[in-house]
Amino acid sequence: MVSQTQRQACMATLAKAELKQLEELVKQLGALPKYSFLRSPEIGSAMVRSPIGGTDSNFNLGEITIVRCVVQIEQASGYITGFGYVAGRAHRHAELAAVCDGLLQCPSWYEKI
Known about the structure:
alpha+beta; globular
């Protein structure tokens, strides 16, 4: 089972990866398990906060565009939920990130991912 810290690191890597590279790597995995959208990729915005100087106080720096997606992956033992959040407007990127996040939680797929 993947720890929360490992999952956060993997999700950050998936979000920052180039879409073209992510597409190629997912293709190398072969046939993926069946999945469905719990939340189709959708564009939204998120507030970016930043610390002020050397203090603990934060201020709102501005908003960025993000795409989020949630998938449900069908497994023999039940369903696993994967989440994808990426900066920009690439729906496919968020979908692939969500699928990979879900597969990371599957013991049989963890090593492949």
